[in-house]
LCP family protein (Thermocrispum agreste), 343 residues
Amino acid sequence: AWGMKEWYDSKFTEVAALDEESKDIKHKAAQVGDENFLILGSDSRVGAPKGAGIGTEETVKGARSDTIMIAHLPKERDRAVLVSFPRDLEITRPECHRWNYKTGEYSDEVVPETPQVKLNTAYAEGGPRCVIKWVQKMTGMRMTRFVGIDFAGFKEMVDAVGGVQVKVDTPIVDSILGTVVDKPGLVTLTGDQALSFVRARHVEGDPTSDYGRIKRQQQFIAALLTKTMSRDVLLDPDKLTSFVNAFADATFGDNIGVDQLLELAQSLKGLDTDSVVFLTVPTTGYANERGNEVLLEDRAQELFSAIIHNEPIPGVDTGEDASHDTSGDDSSTDQGGTSPEGQ
């Protein structure tokens, strides 16, 4: 078993990202024993074949973070909190070293601090290290694990485990991608469907494009992790090996391996629905004159302070109106959303 674990771990691509000694980390004593995964979905198209539905390197230049999410497990492991950030959130991008997404390496060139830019440019310019630098400064949280997923290999991960089951309330029809899910209820997504499910930004009935997509991404990532912990996968060597191979091909990370991924998956699977909380960082809910989402900084600080100290989360555990001054569709909080799969 140990040899198999070493083989799995050796397949993960290591990329420098973490800075656990950063001066931006607050209340360090309160965070001892916590695990904070920064999960980043990259929309670089390196190696993506034509007709894959995600564009190619020729049609979509560079690499930008399409998904940015913190998965927090407190030391007590009595809840899990997943916080997503709109990719169009307006930030002051910190000074960072230039990142080459093709090689996964940083250069000596310094990209200066730049105000009033979109969050996803942090990854494009400075890679995961720049994203984590901004995240830690804004949240005060210590990121302990980093995992990046490239959409070019996303479909294979899903197909390797025989699809992933999610529950949808209405059909999902996107004006660009077409019909993703044709009827409400429980549906097992194929790799092609899953890719469209997490990338759809122009869905009929979505009041705002980014927040509906964030909810689907949160729901799907939780469902995928739950599926990997199911007996159907863990007790099937061929299926498990296929998933690990596909996952390793599509991911890169820092301080991440089989044990850490299984702990996150097991925590999501083992907690009851009310103890797994999905959030979107508080924003005004509408774009400013630069087309960027605007962070509600005071509310964000309240949120991350509650997470750090494992206290009731404003708007969720306290019964407050979580949708006030956010996107207007109650997108700042959403409990549950994990798949029933893997029971």
In short: The chain has nine helices and 18 strands. The longest strand covers residues 65-73. Residues 125 and 188 are 36 Å apart (CA to CA).
